[in-house]
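Q: Sequence in, structure out?
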Amino acid sequence: MNIIKDFDNRLLNRREIKAVFQMPSNPGFAKAGEMIASQFKANSETIIVKTLKSKFGRDTFLIDALIYDSLKDMEKFEPKKKVKKSADAAPAAPAPAVPAKAEAKK
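A: Exactly. Output:
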């Protein structure tokens, strides 16, 4: 792993990491988070992997990640995940009927 940028952002209580990993295949966001946690000795629950980029045919991956100091700080600054509505939920009330236009005179 080659660290390109390691910025300690005290205003938001996090470290902003930009690193390059060399792997034979795409590690995915979960495994990238685990690798960063082991490298920086951080809790894997407080790591957010923002981007995971590569170019076609290469075995290097650019990873942008955030390491928060605590779960409380992470919940404060990270957006909430949207919850999908289930199919069992009741449908919304129908829209009010719009009166039909008068027929044109012939």
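The domain at 2-72 is CATH 3.30.70.3370 (Alpha-Beta Plaits).
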